[in-house]
Design goal:
homodimer; alpha/beta; 3-stranded antiparallel β-sheet; 8 helices
Chain lengths: 206, 206
């Protein structure tokens, strides 16, 4: 389990395996195979076996993988066998949809703190959490030792928010603002921009 | 411009270049360089020059790239120099945030039709479009010749929606449901699942 030697692209596929295994588990399925996982995910079965082999020997010749066992192992490898507190910055349409999204529960994350700079939004309550004044961002993130944040503010404000988050100790940022962020080494950023995906696919349209 | 010979991963970077150039253009900047683009995007300048060289010669030694010219060329290459009608399926929290999102305008897309199966939502109006009964999905998509769709329904319903979309002629699907879709060859799917990104980054947290 020499973490540093596993290619990042392999790590990026593990959440997909975990997602598929979780659905199998919820459906009561006990065993699966790299072939079945591959069919569901559109990934070659050899690739799946090779990806998993970075972390150990999880399957048995003949019976394949035990769904719950492999699911638990992957959750542990991805460090989502715990519950990470996440800060959400921005409580506009998108931020509200993210705050209401039920899909984080049991996936390793929960929205622990929400920030906005709009007085009309500060104090609103979502799932028992009050929207906080963004002026308190550093203080609250430090105090609650939050390491993960979601940025859902307009593009022009995103870099300043990222700078504050990093300064307060955040190490992983999921950025919905349509702008590439500059962060110091040791901080990870991933991006969600629907326009990028749509334009990518538009290229192939007739 | 032999479209089929350009690696898909190169196509995937063009929207990022276009996004950066659009911001430069809006800021009134006239020229840029692969070096500056690379700095902004965290991509090597040699990579950028190589990516662009698949499509022609856009820069000049010494002066670099003319921002508006390169922006227009990339928009043309990506086929987003026009305005694609997009169908949005699902008008829950997420679908509503997508429908209200202002970021599609001038990026090549507009939400042309919205569908849901909830009688309380059907008939609601967003930006002058009424939410339609999902029973009319095939009819409307065929009639309006919509080729691009966004799926924002729960995971359990997503495959059935995708099947209907494909059958009605949709060729590109942006899927927000946390499930891998099966589609026939010739149809593209891209995925947005925040949990996948968060889990990917969680791996690297201490």
């Amino acid at each position: 389990m020499a973490a540093s030697t596993v290619p990042d692209i392999v790590i990026g596929r593990l959440p997909l395996y975990l997602r598929a295994l979780t659905m199998m588990s919820e459906a009561g399925q006990e065993y699966t195979s790299s072939h079945e996982l591959g069919q569901q995910l559109g990934i070659g079965s050899a690739q799946i076996r090779k990806d998993l082999s970075h972390f150990g020997e999880f399957g048995k010749q003949g019976t394949g993988y035990e769904v719950n066992f492999l699911k638990e192992q992957l959750a542990k490898i991805l460090k989502v066998d715990r519950d990470w507190p996440v800060a959400l910055v921005g409580f506009g349409d998108l931020g509200q949809a993210i705050a209401h999204y039920g899909g984080f529960a049991a996936k390793g994350f929960h929205i622990q703190a929400i920030f906005d700079n709009d007085p009309a939004k500060i104090g609103q309550e979502v799932n028992g959490k009050q929207v906080q004044d963004i002026a308190r961002l550093s203080e609250i993130i430090r105090q609650q030792q939050i390491k993960i944040a979601i940025i859902a503010v307009p593009a022009f404000a995103a870099q300043a928010v990222a700078d504050q988050l990093v300064e307060a100790g955040v190490k992983a940022i999921l950025n919905y603002a349509p702008i590439t962020l500059k962060v110091p080494e040791g901080v990870r950023v991933q991006y969600i921009d629907p326009v990028v995906h749509l334009q990518w696919m538009a290229y192939y349209l007739e």
